[in-house]
Amino acid sequence: MSETRIAAPDGTGDFAAYVATPEGKDPAGAVVVIQEIFGVNESMRKICDWVADLGFIAVCPDLFWRIEPGVQLTDGSEAEWKKAFALMNAFDQDKGVEDLKATLAHARAMPGASGKAGTIGFCLGGRLAFLMAERSDSDVNVSYYGVGLDGLLGEAGAIRAPLLVHIAEKDRFVPPEARDKVVAGLQGNPHAEVHVYPGVDHAFARMGGHSWDGRAATIANGRTAEALAAALG
């Protein structure tokens, strides 16, 4: 729908973010949509449009801007996969979290915003949404098939807002022991809710993607909608 620019917190420049706004919802909560390793592509823009259709302002920042601004890849070719992994490996996660915090603050202050804001992330973004639950004041965080979450459990005690974690049982990038460690590590945490979706692979909620599963995606997205509505109004 539109684009905004956000000042980098380290003073090195600014970065673009795709924005989708709801119809007739004023004031509205805001959701920072966190990209996969493929950049702010058509899939991410469609997710933003879906979030706006739920009644929230959606803001999806270009997190690879320090490496290559404007990346838009798909999962349709080996060359794109190689480039996506190269970008992920070059990505500074800590700077990315700081950029997301800046995006969260920007979203809270946008025209029509209510001041409440959360995050929803996929793949790399699922990992970053988990980190935002640990390191930011986001009002709610949703992680779809985040990678390496088992290595982030040391900070789980810092989670103070609702965290919804969607895990693919057959995730090709998450070994079963890592999945089980995340489930066990968040068990008993009053702020965390974890769901494992049987028989599905990584990216099961990316419509049109290599692992799309309509049933699991619909169930996960319904839980996401409920979590966002409960936290953001």
TrEMBL record:
<dbReference type="InterPro" id="IPR051049">
    <property type="entry name" value="Dienelactone_hydrolase-like"/>
</dbReference>
<dbReference type="InterPro" id="IPR029058">
    <property type="entry name" value="AB_hydrolase_fold"/>
</dbReference>
<protein>
    <submittedName>
        <fullName>Dienelactone hydrolase family protein</fullName>
    </submittedName>
</protein>
<dbReference type="InterPro" id="IPR002925">
    <property type="entry name" value="Dienelactn_hydro"/>
</dbReference>
<keyword id="KW-0378">Hydrolase</keyword>
<dbReference type="GO" id="GO:0016787">
    <property type="term" value="F:hydrolase activity"/>
</dbReference>
<dbReference type="Pfam" id="PF01738">
    <property type="entry name" value="DLH"/>
</dbReference>
<feature type="domain" description="Dienelactone hydrolase">
    <location>
        <begin position="15"/>
        <end position="230"/>
    </location>
</feature>
